Every structure is written in structure tokens, then in C-alpha cells.
Known about the structure:
Elements: H1 5-41, H2 43-50, H3 62-82, H4 86-106, H5 110-130, H6 137-142
Helix pairs in contact: 1-3, 2-3, 3-4, 4-5
Amino acid sequence: MQLPDSWDSAFDSGRDYGLLVMRLGVGLMFFFVHGLAKIQAGPELWAKIGGAMGNFGVTFLPAFWGFMAASAECFGGLFLAAGLLARPAAAAMAFTMLVASVMHLSAGDGLKGASHAVELFFVLSGLALAGAGRFSLDRKFFGGKI
């Protein structure tokens, strides 16, 4: 059974509204709750956060890696919410959540302790693949190709 064309159109616009809600919710929460505080905290916290890269054998420049993670959460959150360079922003944030997931698992927190980071990894990976949708600055400036 085939649905009428009007149903397809309703589902297509619902997809764009769904992407908008996810981008705004996840992006603004990352900016206000996670990223901004980490950016403002400075090099001491950045070095602590960047130490998580040691789980991947990367032990040099922990403050740099911590700053990159804080930037991905802060500025990536803003870019994701705006739908500007949303795919690269979501990919950077997903990588940060992958590192956080491995950190929790390596620390013995178990899957329950790592669940928030794991869940966000999947959400952000999905957004990186799906793109920002129709209601985005990517669509306005790049025709939705980024």
C-alpha cells in the first residue's frame, strides 16, 4: 500500500523539525552545561580532561587535547544549534563523547557510568550523518551540502 503524496510531504517536514529540535536541544545543552564552563576553567582543567587521550596512547600535550574537547563542546554546541557546519561540529562532539566513553569504561565505571557519553556519541554520530536539515544556516549558505 502506498501512502498519498501529502503524507510523504508531512513526514519530510517532520524530519526537518525533528532535526531542528535535536540540534537545538543537544547543542544548547552542550554549550551552556558542558562546554562554556570548561572553556572558562582554563589550562588546569583542560590538562585533566585531555589526560583521557592517554587511553588511546596519546600522552603528549594534555592541555591542548582538553582545550580541543572543551571547544568541541562549547563552540560545537553553538554551531550545532545554529545548524552552521553542523556535520563537522557533530562529528567533533561525537569524537569527544567517544573519548569520554572510553575514559569511563577504563576507569571501571561500567556501562552504566559511561551510558550518558555513549548515548550522546550515538545521537551526535546520527546528526553528523543526517546533517542539519532544512531549518539551518548550512541550508541557507551551502545548500545543505555540508
